[in-house]
Automatic annotation (TrEMBL):
<protein>
    <submittedName>
        <fullName>Uncharacterized protein</fullName>
    </submittedName>
</protein>
Length: 94
């Protein structure tokens, strides 16, 4: 069991090393993604409501909007966007 755990840990570290130093894959810049998100019409509509705006600001600090990969998904994919909007409305009107 310990051997299996150490093998999985080693594979993860090697994969991370290859992505970071050999392939030079960078983490997306969250500030640029937030700027792109603020340009979206559906996001502008969300920001007009004060209750929702408070939830979105808090989400940038500690929530879903802190993850650059999730922000990219809600910008690009309508299904993720609809789920995010529903999540924000559910949390803001409790």
């Amino acid at each position: 069991m310990l051997f299996l755990f150490l093998c999985m840990l080693t594979v993860g570290l090697v994969t991370s090393f290859v992505q970071k130093y050999i392939l030079r894959i960078k983490e997306p810049n969250i500030e640029e993604l937030w700027k792109e998100l603020h340009e979206q019409d559906w996001f502008k509509d969300l920001l007009e409501k004060q209750e929702v705006k408070m939830i979105l600001d808090a989400s940038k600090e500690t929530g879903l909007l802190r993850d650059p990969y999730y922000v990219r998904k809600i910008i690009d994919q309508e299904g993720y966007r609809d789920g995010f909007i529903e999540y924000i409305y559910d949390n803001s009107y409790k």
